[in-house]
């Protein structure tokens, strides 16, 4: 890595240029070398936009790292809050708000979302009732669709494979129709979740 000021580079090359002209070197060769040096040192002069993008990427990595540890039970709830508040002071802005946005992305109908609700309620000071109601409603829809598919599945099983009886359970994991239905419900859930307004503070 080259730790030099760009002004110094131009000064050195100006001196080099004069010397090389006397010795008969081609200006094209000097220019080519200068281009290489400029390419190597362009990161030394970041624009404000680039600095902000780097900072945002750093914050995003920190948030994802924290949440991953929390989901893996590597961080307890109190430890998560302590670490998040420390990073809020370090990075400023709306670091806690960034956590809330990422948590909403991670909410899943097939998971236990109580850990996420705890973060939103205790750390982000959000009313989680609208989210919990939405989750419950969609879980009911999923269960209803599953129940509707059970009977036709059992009937096909009896007709095509002569398998029937009270002990027979419908295994719908590989049912293509149900897979498509679940996929559509998940998409609808995510859209509804994203459309919810910012929840008022508790």
Task: Supply the key terms.
single chain; 202 residues; mainly alpha; 3 domains
How much strand? under 5%
Weakly predicted, low-confidence segments = 1-26
> What is the domain tally?
3
Query: Count the helices. How many?
Result: 8
Helix fraction bin: over 70%
Topology (elements, then pairings):
Blueprint: H1 6-23, H2 27-41, H3 48-71, H4 77-91, H5 95-106, H6 114-123, H7 129-161, H8 176-195
Helix pairs in contact: 1-2, 3-4, 3-5, 5-6, 7-8
Describe the structure.
- 73% of the residues lie in helices and 0% in strands.
- It is an all-alpha fold.
- The chain folds into three domains: 6-44; 48-123, no CATH class; 129-195, no CATH class.
- Helix 3 runs antiparallel to helix 4, helix 5 runs antiparallel to helix 6 and helix 7 (129-161) packs antiparallel against helix 8.
- The longest helix has 33 residues, at 129-161.
- Residues 1-26 have low confidence and may be disordered.
Briefly characterize the structure.
This protein is an all-alpha fold and about 200 residues long. Helix content is about 75%, strand content about 0%.
């Amino acid at each position: 890595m080259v730790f030099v000021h760009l002004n110094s580079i131009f000064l050195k090359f100006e001196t080099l240029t004069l010397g090389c002209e006397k010795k008969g070197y081609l200006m094209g060769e000097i220019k080519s070398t200068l281009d290489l040096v400029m390419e190597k040192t362009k990161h030394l002069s970041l624009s404000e936009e680039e600095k902000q993008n780097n900072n945002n990427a750093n914050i995003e990595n920190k948030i994802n790292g924290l949440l991953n540890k929390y989901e893996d039970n590597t961080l307890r709830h109190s430890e998560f809050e302590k670490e998040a508040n420390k990073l809020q002071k370090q990075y400023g802005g709306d670091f806690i708000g960034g956590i809330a946005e990422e948590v909403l992305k991670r909410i899943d109908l097939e998971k236990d979302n109580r850990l996420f609700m705890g973060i939103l309620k205790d750390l982000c000071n959000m009313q989680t009732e609208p989210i919990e109601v939405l989750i419950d409603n969609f879980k009911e829809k999923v269960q209803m669709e599953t129940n509707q598919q059970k009977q036709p599945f059992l009937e096909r099983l009896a007709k095509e494979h002569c398998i029937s009886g009270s002990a027979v359970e419908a295994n719908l994991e590989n049912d293509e129709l149900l897979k498509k239905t679940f996929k559509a419900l998940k998409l609808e859930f995510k859209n509804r979740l994203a459309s919810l307004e910012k929840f008022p503070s508790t």
